[in-house]
Amino acid sequence: MSKPARLLALSLLLSTSLGALAAHAASLEGAAEKLGAKNARSLEFSGSGQWFQFGQAPVPGGPWPQFDVSRYNAAIDFDAGAAHVALARLQTIDPARARPAPVEQKVDAWLAGGKAWNVGPAPGAAPDAAPVATPAFAAVEERTAEILSTPQGFLKAALAHDAKVEKAGDSLKVSFSLGKHKYEGVIDDKDRVNSVRTWIDTPVLGDTPVETKFTNYKDFGGLLFPADIERSEGGYPVLRLAVASAKLNGAAPIAVPENIASATPPAVVVKCEKIGDNVFYLTGGTHHSALVVEKDFVVLIEAPLNEERSLALIQKIAEVAPNKPIKYVVNSHVHFDHAGGLRTFVDNGSIIVAHELDKPYYEKAWSAPRDINPDKLAASKKAAQFVTYKDELTLGEGEGLVKIYRLAGSGHSDDLALIYLPQSKIAIEADAYSPPAADAPLPKTVNPYSANLLENIQKLNLDVEKIAGLHGARVANLADLKAYIGQKSASN
After folding, report:
1. Contact, 245 vs 75, CB < 8 A?
2. In this predicted model, what pLDDT tens digit does every residue of 320-347 receive, in sequence order?
3. Domains and CATH numbers, the chain
4. 388 - beta bridge partners?
5. In angstroms, rounded to a whole number, what is the distance separating the alpha carbons of residues 135 and 117?
């Protein structure tokens, strides 16, 4: 090759190499320009896919249960920090588990003005009742995170909050903080946002990772947007969406309903009803507990929801049984709404009574960081004390005897407990049977969870007279349970 030819070849090689380097020079500003974030006031996108129910794994430590989503519509107002998500979902049938027949659920979730609310029939109303706006106080943090967990939302926030930009191979790692919340995103060499990660507070997991991944970017009428979105929370998927449409700057402003604007979180109230000798039913909210007063201590059955509820329970127990320590706290199962208050009792020095499947899960969860919303256990760092069982366990003695059984064959959760008090002939359970009001119509189909509860009571030969559900409107009796599942005979 002649010298001029070699020089020409070298020149072409250098030009190609420099061009390749330029093509891989990702930038925050370039991504914002390419994805339309700089001028984005609002975003709308829709699609279908799967939704997963966070905190409700049927196997402790397993994935969240899946629902099929036929319709998913999201509208976000970036400037106002507002959002509206409407979807229709149907629980995916798992042939290995007996569950109630799936019914389509319509979700209408809103956020604006620092307020979150849902629109639908009021709690306890018939499914076809007129829709009303109901506050969702606990959802503000998560719904805010979802706004910033879109490509355009993340880029706008990063530009506005002096984001730190670091080179990571051919990509960029972009991070910033909003108050206590950290956001991290990855921009690839094509100026596309590949992922956004943040953390929100949840009662069981503490600082809970929420990661959203974006793949298969497509042109939606001039907007470059991912055709596939997957979001995980607490290590497992909570949303998989195949995007069918997306556009910028078309969403209508979101107004906060008057009753939502003036709403404040209700005070935590614990009501106490004596339902047996030294047995008390602690209600006053969506989730209930029960208390068994022993000679030298008390046994609390269930610590649901969160620390606020647990602190109120501790105060009420001190009134009912002064100077008696809460030695044991029995957990019905690992679902987060029934386990969210356990940490408070670990700090209180109580022994947690749980199925053997739950102990390693709780130990791992409770050792994770809790910096967003520190609780009493985060400050004291006390080690949890456990008593576990496989199929059954006995606590106390004499009149304070407490028998705990695993509900064999329940499709709801592999660790679901049935608590039985032989002296009072009371069964205490969660999620298998939630006694409705006495005048409520009976269901038209059999709930397999309730049928399984009766089957276990009969197989264990338990002499049950009363059933105190950890949900429900009242204390029922065995005849009520039988009628609920369609058995005409009220005898044992």
Report:
1. no
2. 999 999 999 999 999 999 999 999 999 9
3. 41-261 (2.50.20), 271-484 (3.60.15.10)
4. 354
5. 4
